[in-house]
Amino acid sequence: MAKASELSHTSNHATLLVQDRSDKTDCYNCIIETFQTQAYNLARRMLDDWSMAEDAVQESLVSAYRAFARFRGDNLSAWLMRIVANTCRDMLRSRRARPTVPLDPTPVDEEEQGRTLSALDLPSTGESPEEHAERGALNRAIQDCLNSLPQEHRLAEVLVDVQGMSYEEASVAMDCNLGTVKSRVSRGRRGLRECLQKAGELLPSRFRHT
Amino acid sequence: MKIIKRNHQHINPDTLSEYLDGRIHGPALARIDQQLATCNLCREEIESLRSTITMLRELPQEAPRRSFVMTAPPPMLARPPTSAFQLPDFLRVPQWVYAGAASVAVIVVVALLSADASITTTLPQFAQFLVGNRSAGGKATRLASA
Known about the structure:
The structure holds two protein chains of two kinds.
Chain A: E1 17-19, E2 25-27, H1 28-47, H2 50-66, H3 76-97, H4 105-112, H5 129-148, H6 151-162, H7 167-174, H8 178-198
Antiparallel strand pairs in A: 1-2
Helix pairs in contact in A: 1-2, 1-3, 2-3, 3-7, 5-8, 6-7, 6-8, 7-8
Chain B: H1 13-20, H2 26-38, H3 40-57, H4 95-145
């Protein structure tokens, strides 16, 4: 549980100062550097679109900057993720209201598939092309299953199971009580399990028995 | 998976989920462990859920393609101009107090109006009743004198 006052200035970015309710001054860019990956991954999993995810994070960080004086100083990560989750909700709502179709879906699809065909993109971690392809397929299957869940169950799953938040932190991020978080996590897990069972052929052998 | 509740009480799915997160302690934990030892269906359920959670935990964190660090503070939203007159601190109360006071005022006004309306509707009837009694009384006195 990170507090704003615990984040020290470690890099040479511009020091953007903000003040919280307790009149403590913090470097906002330090906060951004600490939480931008978590925020981006939350938005990426919720929206399943890297470009929209970037917009969501940017918008959320600006909103958080403006609202920083209202931050009570107990759990910065959950507070920020709450703002990101709200931005994602708004974006999903507007996407449902005004659905868009990409003009040329082919390049995006290749990118979304994890660019499994390009040997240049293979990581240098000793992973074989087959393992890389398998991982890409598994990631895609999990993301498709996450997309099939109701929005709030997906949010609960991403916060608790993907990002490893506690139920208490998730309840702050989701702006609901602990019982609701428990029930959403439980339903989300069961929904994902059923979906992944259907996609069983794509899964690595150790998960195929589920 | 259906949780069948006939001869054997299966573990509630929400409880299983909490059990997997290590959030069950004490006697409840012992009860679940005991039940898992005897219930194949519960064990299958918990194993499949555990695999699902493992898959999610192993998902890699993707680095953002660009940094979101700001080079300058974003413009703050324009605030509505505040009036020169401000209440002293001891008179400042939360918004819900104003809302509550307004609701009470509305209820009182409605109650007064309805009471007023009932008086205006009953007054003519009361007057009619008085007139009727008087005329009946007049007749009675006349009869007595006759």
